[in-house]
Amino acid sequence: MNFRRGRGREDVEINLIPLIDVLLVILIFLMVTTSYSKTAGLEITLPSAEAPESDPGDREINVLITARGDILINRQPVPAGDADALRTALAQAASGKQEPVVIISSDREARLQSSIDVMQAAQQAGISGISFATQSDTAAGR
Q1: What is the spatial order of strands in the sheet that 71-73 belongs to?
Q2: Which of these, 53, 64, 81, 96, is most buried using a 10 Å CB contact count?
Q3: How far apart are CA 61 and CA 121, in angstroms?
Q4: What is the pTM of this model?
Q5: Structural domain boundaries, residue 119
Q6: Domain for residue 16, yes or no?
Q7: How many domains does the chain fold into?
């Protein structure tokens, strides 16, 4: 028996307005609680000293790597591919220098392996300061 003769069947709907309201409240909550500040680093005060600065030229060991892979230490050639000779030459160049620094000037076309060999030889020779010489694009004429 059908007791609801006069009534039509109602379509079932999901009301999305309250759902959208709740999602917007959650989004606003997340935006407000999220921190967007960037910390640049620790603020420290470095100590000062009155000692005269030493000439950096007396600490430098200049290593030149050519495009062909030739290695020169203070303009003295070192046999290519000989890690022991490279380590020995760097150790001799560093002897008598306080805190020596190896400055690698590598040609743009030189293989990366040559630079890595120099860095490994410097580490084995007990030299911890390593730097790469570069030039700006304006100085290179670009």
Answers
A1: 76-78, 71-73, 60-65, 101-106, 129-132
A2: 64
A3: 13
A4: 0.56
A5: 57-132
A6: no
A7: 1
